[in-house]
Task: structure prediction
Amino acid sequence: MHDTVWFEIQGLASVTIASSEFKEAAAIQAEALGMDNAKCVFVPHPIQDATIEQMQNKAEGIVSHVIAALKEALKEKP
Result:
């Protein structure tokens, strides 16, 4: 979340990608950093013990969501 906020402050559209286990923590962190509208996309949990094939499937499953979040973030730029 810190990186997303930093990039947004620099004027660059960005999105946080994290495990679904951290949805609540991401929302709390975004609010604490003063950017409660930060874009986030969540990969199904767990990640740590996932095989390469499972991670590829998880990544493929969120590509369209990441693109949509970035497009939305770009629309919000002045």
